[in-house]
């Protein structure tokens, strides 16, 4: 893609450690600052470094209206250890956590900093994201209904275009929720969920059901990224093999809302940078941003794991479950925890945890190469990375 | 009486956004608010021995969590100030007052608050001020109504009311946030809205790709070139895709269940979201032919809401391939 800057990744960088909070509906015992700090302290401990070892901090957070705090990075500077250091805030709607990881990585890959802390959070309990996403500007028709209302028509288009059977959405939900039951940090633990129980749940935005929808969570995630020397000194880091971000407008004539061009372009750049020619064969585990279950087959196609219209077949065959050809969201994914601003960085952190062998009960055995992915806005922002146990 | 607008004046209208956000305070700020409810002011000691008021959760020097509370006086010294001649709604005082950074006795940092000095002539750096407490503190920075001049010549304070007893620690705050915007439509969108006020749809065609945009945008988002050719569009077309909204939510204007559909007008190349009525929700189909059901003419304004909803025309559905590229 012209001008898309698909040159090499610069200097080597590696994830040294990750941390996250126990995601829940309401963390009323801590402030936003305390919530972020919990994830940061765990990430620093996991990386074996202290705050003094961090050279710069990158903060990711969904739109300010979600908590009603303008520029929270200002009041959070002390808590996130940014005093006397460069602090950047990243804004890319729901994909922001992923973009935060990419920006932090780029500061190391560019040789600007040796160790960078990426942190992302959301405290959904302080507001109402559905309200914030349904503001009706003057002169318009008030039919919008939050993220679910935005994405449901495009899910219907996917089902129509692909001919996917109706139970695919329920299968994804069952897989992710059962995976989440193995993850102590996940918001929802539903080991007994079944396809039948998902299909029996209320239809919120037809064709999307309640049990096929992400929860509303309070939570934070942090990742410490270091340069080659720091990676060499670390115990089993996750080497960053490639990163990519792409954007497209929310609406334009002929826009493919089911399989957006920006996502395809980001994936193509990512695989090229990572030297991957057959993602399904070469990626061992993927953490993909799936806030509504049908987005798993949609993104499998968008990312090139399956041909267009065929993603649902991988789901139906059980290939995206732990033990399948491409385990997707062994952490339980966004369907099990959704602190919006942090959700993308959680995908990135979980992918790193897999290749670091630190994923606990949801560890995919032998995982050496992993994908972390996030999307945001009206499917218009994409951020992704490939991390590996092996040094590139 | 409103001045008639020139035909190309952009339309604008108020957009008021407000929500009562809640804040969980955490241990340090919770303690601060709990003390305020008792008409006491508590700071926190930092790693370098400084007492921070208001307290900070994490040390500005070391970033370590702080936890040692330190009581300070409710009197102090103005470090710097400015005058607020015309207070706005929601500010601590509704008559002219001073905004001041007040370093309380025993504190090393300053707190921003209002000083009820009456006149800027009475404000000065170094002046002594004391808190004026509200009668019924609840655990909020607003338990301090404002500061007032203290020191020689000041009125003596009456006896303090007894603090409220036996209540739980303060852990939460409610913070109403209201933003009043003026939302403006572009010149092109304003022309489209004025056409709607006459019961017509107009779009614009891109000179490069030939696509017709409704509402018109003035520039093609794909080609980046100005769009000037105006195109009259019929008030009928097809449903490309849709969802049925069953979920109620705060701020919702249409009672669920309702069908939110992308409607592609005949001759347009981009669909917009609207409401479909006139048949059961589960009878709405992709490709279904629909037409506008306009509100009574006397209720028309410059809004897409002039179309109450779209309803089925009864014509055969459009074939999938005819709208595939609009999904």
Assembly context of the chains = heterodimer
CATH class of chain A: Alpha Beta
Distance between the termini of chain B: 46 Å
Tell me what the CATH architecture of chain A is. Answer: 3-Layer(aba) Sandwich
Total helical segments of chain B: 3
What is the terminal-to-terminal distance of chain A?
24 Å
Features:
heterodimer, A: 392 residues, alpha/beta, Peroxisomal Thiolase, Chain A, domain 1, nine-stranded mixed sheet, two-stranded antiparallel ribbon, 14 helices, 11 strands, globular, B: 327 residues, mainly beta, 3 domains, five-stranded antiparallel sheet, 3 helices, 36% strand, elongated
Describe the overall structure.
- The complex is a heterodimer of chains A (392) and B (327).
- Chain A contains 14 helices and 11 strands.
- Chain A has 392 residues and is an alpha/beta fold.
- In chain A, the strands form 2 sheets. In chain A, strands 3-2-4-7-1-8-11-10-9 form a 9-stranded mixed β-sheet. Chain A has a two-stranded antiparallel ribbon with strand order 5-6.
- Chain A is globular and about 50 Å long.
- The model of chain A is unreliable at 1-7 (pLDDT under 50).
- Chain B has 327 residues and is mainly β.
- Chain B has 3 domains: 19-154 and 164-177, no CATH class; 185-233, no CATH class; 235-327, no CATH class.
- Chain B has helices spanning 26-37, 187-196, 320-323; strands at residues 12-24, 41-45, 51-52, 69-72, 75-84, 97-104, 111-115, 128-133, 144-149, 172-184, 201-205, 212-213, 229-233, 236-245, 258-265, 272-276, 289-294, 307-312.
- The longest helix of chain B has 12 residues, at 26-37.
- The two termini of chain B are 46 Å apart.
- At the A-B interface, helix 1, helix 4, helix 5 and strand 5 of A face strand 1, helix 1, strand 10, strand 12 and strand 14 of B.
- Strand 5 of chain A pairs antiparallel with strand 14 (236-245) of chain B.
């Amino acid at each position: 893609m012209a001008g898309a800057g698909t040159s090499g990744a610069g200097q080597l960088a590696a994830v040294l450690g990750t941390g996250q909070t126990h995601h829940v509906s309401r963390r009323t015992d801590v402030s936003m600052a305390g919530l972020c700090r919990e994830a940061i302290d765990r990430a620093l401990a996991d990386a074996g470094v202290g705050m003094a070892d961090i050279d710069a901090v990158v903060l990711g957070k969904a739109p300010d209206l979600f908590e009603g705090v303008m520029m929270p990075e200002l009041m959070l500077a002390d808590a996130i250890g940014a005093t006397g250091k460069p602090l950047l805030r990243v804004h890319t709607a729901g994909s922001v956590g992923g973009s935060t990881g990419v920006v932090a990585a780029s500061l190391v890959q560019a040789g600007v900093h040796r160790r960078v802390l990426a942190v992302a959070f959301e405290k959904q309990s302080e507001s109402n994201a559905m309200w914030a996403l349904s503001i009706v500007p003057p002169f318009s028709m008030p039919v919008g209904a939050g993220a679910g209302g935005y994405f449901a028509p495009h899910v219907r288009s996917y089902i129509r275009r692909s001919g996917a059977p109706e139970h695919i959405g329920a299968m994804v939900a069952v897989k992710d929720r059962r995976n989440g039951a193995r993850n102590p940090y996940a918001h929802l633990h539903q080991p007994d969920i079944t396809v039948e129980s998902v299909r029996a749940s209320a239809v919120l935005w037809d064709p999307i059901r309640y049990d096929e929808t992400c929860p509303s969570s309070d939570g934070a995630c942090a990742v410490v990224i270091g340069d080659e020397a720091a990676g060499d000194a670390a115990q089993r880091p996750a080497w960053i093999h490639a990163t990519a971000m792409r954007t497209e407008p929310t609406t334009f004539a002929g826009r493919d809302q089911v399989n957006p061009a920006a996502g395809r372009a980001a994936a193509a750049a990512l695989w090229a940078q990572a030297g991957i020619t057959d993602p399904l064969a070469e990626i061992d585990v993927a953490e993909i941003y799936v806030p509504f279950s049908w987005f798993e087959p949609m993104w499998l196609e968008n990312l090139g794991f399956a041909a267009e219209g065929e993603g649902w077949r991988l789901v139906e065959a059980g290939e995206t479950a732990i033990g399948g050809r491409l385990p997707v969201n062994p952490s339980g994914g966004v369907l099990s925890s959704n602190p919006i601003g942090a959700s993308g960085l959680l995908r990135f952190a979980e992918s790193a945890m897999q290749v670091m062998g630190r994923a606990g009960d949801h560890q995919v055995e032998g995982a050496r190469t992993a994908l972390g992915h996030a999307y945001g806005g009206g499917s218009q922002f994409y951020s992704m990375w490939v991390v590996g146990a092996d040094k590139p | 009486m409103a001045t008639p607008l020139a035909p190309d004046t952009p339309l604008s209208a108020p957009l008021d956004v407000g929500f009562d956000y809640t804040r969980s305070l955490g241990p340090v700020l919770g303690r601060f608010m709990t003390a305020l409810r008792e008409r006491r002011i508590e700071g926190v000691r930092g790693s370098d021995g400084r007492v921070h008021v208001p307290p900070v959760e994490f040390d500005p020097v070391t970033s370590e969590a702080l936890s040692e509370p330190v009581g300070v006086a409710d009197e102090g010294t103005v470090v710097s100030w400015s005058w607020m001649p015309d207070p706005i709604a929601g500010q601590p005082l509704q008559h002219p007052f001073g905004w001041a950074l007040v370093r309380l006795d025993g504190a090393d940092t300053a707190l921003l608050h209002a000083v009820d000095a009456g006149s800027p002539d009475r404000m000065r750096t170094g002046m002594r001020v004391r808190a004026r407490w509200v009668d019924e503190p609840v655990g909020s920075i607003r338990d301090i109504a404002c500061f007032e001049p203290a020191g020689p010549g000041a009125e003596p304070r009456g006896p303090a009311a007894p603090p409220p007893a036996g209540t739980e620690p303060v852990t939460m705050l409610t913070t109403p946030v209201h933003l009043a915007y003026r939302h403006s439509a572009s010149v092109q969108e304003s022309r489209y809205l004025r056409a709607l006020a006459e019961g017509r749809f107009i779009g614009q065609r891109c000179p490069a790709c030939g696509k017709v945009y409704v509402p018109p945008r003035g520039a093609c988002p794909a080609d980046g070139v100005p769009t000037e050719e105006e195109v009259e569009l019929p008030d009928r077309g097809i449903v490309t895709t849709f969802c049925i909204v069953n979920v109620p939510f705060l701020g919702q204007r249409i009672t669920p269940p309702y069908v939110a559909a992308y409607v592609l007008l005949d001759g347009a190349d981009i669909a917009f979201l609207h409401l479909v009525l006139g048949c059961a929700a589960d009878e709405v189909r992709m490709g279904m032919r629909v037409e506008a059901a306009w509100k009574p003419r006397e209720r028309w304004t410059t809004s897409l809401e002039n179309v109450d909803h779209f309803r089925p025309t009864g014509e055969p559905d459009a074939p999938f391939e005819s709208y595939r590229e609009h999904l």
